[in-house]
Design brief:
The protein is an all-alpha fold. Helices cover about 70% and strands about 0% of the residues. The longest helix is centred in the middle third of the chain and has 37 residues.
């Protein structure tokens, strides 16, 4: 019996030793998420972002392929189809679904085709403003000194010009106001806010340790600016650009309403034309106004969601 007890004790002692000698699997290292990864995770669970993104996607499809929504010509003038003929709400997606304007043009077709002009003006202006203002703000914030003083004073001079009034004066000198002309006029006075936001963000980023380490290792100015400073300073600019896109769409509609915007199909032009017959046919002004409001609201909601996702104070 003692021998059996000793053998059992030896077996029990040997089992932990064998287990200790076996190589345990190493735990997998956790993936570190970046600012953009955390932002995307938050955005996917934010209903404001989802709703605004779906609306913007629908508007993009509408602008790219308007024939999917209507087969009517927005410039076709049928004098027999006057605005005194009320809309036929039973004919969904037909030319007379939302009625006709005073010139016999389909209100629904013009509301659909007006999406393209508004989105092109908004996106084009935002792109030019972001590139121009971002470059000016990055140079002023990184180099500082006399360059910062000069660029900041130039920015203040442009800030002193009323945005809509200055744009109206510029567009009034053009007889043919196409989309590039309107984009140029809006961008000429709209880059100042982006420049200021970028300048403040670059000033904050350039004093961080990784930028100082890149300088100490002898990295060139271009490498530091575009590999270290710009990717970490661009988040506030993206937020401003997203919100400003809706603002520029509203500005284009305002200019068109005043007769100084686009010469083609535009929500602002239709709203202006509808004002002449608002007492007898309110729907002529109503539907392009609804389209404009939904578009501007969608981009503002998207900008707010992006801002909350990129704000480190909310984490």
């Amino acid at each position: 019996m003692p021998e059996l007890t000793t053998s059992a004790d030896e077996a029990a002692t040997a089992a932990p030793s064998a287990a200790a000698g076996a190589k345990l699997p190493e735990p997998k290292p956790e993936k570190t998420r970046s600012l953009w990864g955390d932002a995307w995770r938050d955005l996917r669970s934010n209903w404001v972002f989802v709703v605004s993104a779906v609306l913007i996607l629908l508007l993009l499809v509408m602008a790219a392929w308007p024939s999917l929504f209507t087969s009517a010509d927005p410039n076709n003038k049928d004098l027999a189809a006057h605005y005194l003929q009320h809309p036929h709400y039973g004919n969904v997606f037909a030319a007379d679904w939302l009625g006709y304007d005073a010139q016999g043009r389909s209100v629904f077709a013009r509301a659909i085709y007006g999406t393209r002009a508004s989105l092109l003006v908004g996106a084009g202006t935002t792109l030019v403003v972001t590139i121009l203002g971002g470059l000016i703000g990055m140079l002023a914030g990184y180099f500082g000194g006399w360059l910062d003083a000069i660029l900041s004073r130039v920015t203040d001079m442009f800030f002193g010009i009323p945005f809509l009034l200055g744009t109206m004066v510029m567009l009034n000198s053009f007889t043919e106001r196409s989309i590039p002309v309107v984009i140029g006029a809006l961008a000429f006075l709209g880059w100042t806010q982006t420049a200021r936001v970028m300048r403040g963000s670059v000033i904050t980023v350039k004093s961080t340790d990784y930028v100082q380490a890149a300088k100490a290792l002898g990295a060139g100015t271009n490498r530091i600016l575009f590999r270290h400073v710009l990717p970490n300073a661009v988040a506030p600019v993206i937020v401003v650009a997203t919100i400003s896109l809706g603002v520029y769409i509203g500005a284009e509609a305002t200019l068109s309403f005043l007769g100084l915007g686009l010469n083609g199909v535009s929500w602002g032009n239709d709203i202006s034309d509808g004002g002449n017959s608002i007492r007898v046919a309110q729907y002529i002004m109503l539907y392009p106004s609804i389209m404009l409001s939904i578009t501007v609201l969608a981009f503002i909601m998207l900008g707010e969601a992006v801002r909350n996702a990129l704000d480190p104070k909310t984490r």
